[in-house]
Amino acid sequence: MQSVMLLHIGMSCLGDRGETVTLKEKPMEKRLNAFYWVAIFTLLILAGRLWYLQIVRGEHFSRLADGNRMRQVRLIPSRGIITERSGLTLARSRLAFTVSLIPGGIPADNVEVIPLLSDILGITIEELQEAIRRGRGYPYEPVRIVRDVDPATVIAIEENRRRLPGVYIDQEAVRDYHDPRYSSHVVGYLGIISEPELQALGASYRGSDLVGKSGIERYYEEQLRGVPGAITVEVNALSRPIQTVNSIEPVPGQNLRLTLDYDLQKAAFDAFETHTEVVRRTYPDAYNGAVIAMDPRTGDILAMASIPGFEPDRLLDAGERNDYYRQLVADPRQPFFDRVTQGQYGPGSTFKPVTAVAILEEGVFGVNDRFHATGVSQYGVRDWVITRGLAPFGWLDLPTAIALSSNHFFADHGAKVGIDHLSQWMRDFGLGARTGLAISPQERIGVVPDRDWKRERFASSAQYDQIWYPSDTEQVSIGQGFVTATPLQMAVVYSSIANRGTAYVPRLVAAVYCPEGELVFESEPEILHELDVSDATWTAVIKGMQGTVTQARGTARSAFDGFPLSVAAKTGSYEVPGRESHGLFGAFAPVDDPEIVVFVVVEHGGGGGSGAAPIARMVMDRYFGFDVEDEQEDEQNEGTAE
User: Fold this and answer.
1) Predicted structure pTM score
2) Is the pLDDT of residue 633 over 60?
């Protein structure tokens, strides 16, 4: 019995132990189950993350990896060469060191690169940050910071290589100009591409690229630039190249040969500056102006000088580019302003040959008729002799009226022609429209005033201000009042007269060549207009223009005294309210077979005979070689004297 009880107690104890074990095993099982599901869930997350990284974002991270290891460097092509007509190089490209920065190659926690690089390059941190901003769309593509750096800068960067991750140096072509001041407006200049230009020029450009900003560099940007190449290199952590993976060579830009005669261009610039030093003794503001010389037989522009010019090479120097640009913009003389194509001047009496053609062709006056010039027109226009207290001209025929520049004659007869016919003759001569010259910025068109123009121009004024009056026609007839034209347009007008009716489209680019020298394009003279004018009219007008330099009271006689060839010319001055008049002069020579047309404007230079004509004389002396003969004769005389 006792044993049975013990057994029962034992079984009870065993039962209790079994129950106790069962109670302990249930939490363990739960933990194991929880661990199992956590492990499964973790594996699913890892698998999902791997799937996301490798499948969904695989290409992106592959590019990032390659970006850390590979560099695709755009190879900028050598920009095309620009030469003048005889082959002298005006703009070329040469190899130079360039400092570039790869925005994605700079560690996020590195705060030393930008200040150190700024200090080495001598540019502001803001300028560096702006360069980085320009390359924001291509984090692993080099952004060019400074071009044409000196060897000392290269050494300084290499010495600090470990402190400058993402910065490297390569070689690329940079622009070089020959005596840039003389041809700055013709050739133009390069500058960092702007946002609108970046959008307009296409995907082959980047935010740190240089593009043409004006002149030939701008207008022929596509031809001059060429086609960029690319090289892919493997680099180490310091952005040092290890090996080249592949390479696509750039295609150099095409070369341009201009019609410009550099010797004549320089002579025009120097003549203007030399003579205006004398003019300023009387007219102290005579600093600015324009000179253009054309071949009337083809439309070739031989010289095109806008004074003052600027130095395009300084606009490429990172150290002074911004300061120099601000200096040019703030300069009251407006060096960026191309006065040949953009300056809209009242032509003054240089306009009278146009009025003369209209007078004769409209039958208002005959080539053999005579007019008694008392010195004051019906509406008060005065001859220059009257304003100087001299006797009036008296009886005049049309050629003499041109030679002596009688305002009375042209005001009276221009009023009889009427503004409706006169404005049409202006348009026939090419005024009020672009000549077609291929250059940037696009040329201005000036003003050909007529009834409709005045009505629109003064639409917000009183009704009586909108009406065209005969006095308005008198003013326009002598080149005053509302009429304006560019020096380029006036050169075309004088070419029309020189050719007795035919004018050619002005051109600056004679030919385009591929880099190997093969001719791609050669321009041919293109007729701009042909005027239906009688030979008798041309003869009378040209005879009068010859009298300008040959008659005793011809307004340009002193300037062309002793010139060995026949010249047809006209002086002019345009009144500027509150300031001295502009001096203007147009001429062509020789009369029987014209080779050159010259038109000159001297702002605030007084009369055209004294202010502008001597400049044209010096240009013609250089063109025909007379100044060289004079120099040789002087040298011979000096040798004889010794």
Assistant:
1) 0.83
2) no
Per-residue model confidence (pLDDT) at position 162: 82
Distance of CA 442 to the CA centre of its chain: 9
Distance, CA of 81 to CA of 102 (rounded, Å)? 30
For the four alpha carbons of 340, 344, 349 and 351, in that order, the dihedral sign comes to positive
Do residue 269 and residue 248 come from a single domain? no
The predicted structure's pLDDT at residue 628: 62
Same-domain check for residues 407 and 445: yes
Whether the Cβ atoms of residue 606 and residue 583 lie closer than 8 Å to each other: yes
Q: Find the angle CA(528)-CA(530)-CA(531) to the nearest 5 degrees.
A: 130
* Contacts with 226 (C-beta within 8 Å, 6 or more apart), sequence order: 77, 78, 79, 80, 250, 251, 252, 253, 254, 515
Does 506 reside within a domain? yes
- Quote the CA–CA distance of 257 and 279 in Å, as a whole number: 36
CA 101 to chain centre: 29
On whether residue 635 sits in a domain, the answer given is no
- Whether residue 248 is found in the same domain as residue 346: no
500 φ, ψ to 5°?
55, 45
Task: Name the strand (E) or helix (H) holding 178.
Answer: none
The string of pLDDT tens digits covering residues 148-174 is 888 888 888 888 888 888 787 878 888
Do the domain assignments include residue 403?
A: yes
Judge whether residue 138 has pLDDT over 70: no
Which range of residues forms the domain containing residue 379? 262-307+341-630
User: Do 127 and 192 lie in a common domain?
Assistant: yes
Q: Are 435 and 340 in contact (CB under 8 A)?
A: no
Q: Which H/E stretch holds residue 107?
A: none
Please give the pLDDT value at position 507. 97
Would 250 be classed as within a structural domain?
yes
Q: Are residues 590 and 613 in the same domain?
A: yes
The CA-based angle 92-97-101, given to 5 degrees, is: 120
How far is the C-alpha of 255 from the C-alpha of 515, rounded, in Å? 6
Total domain count for the chain? Answer: 2
**One-letter amino acid for residue 533 of the chain:** V
Are 230 and 267 contained in the same domain?
no
- Among 383, 400, 355, 389, which Cα is nearest to 554's? 400
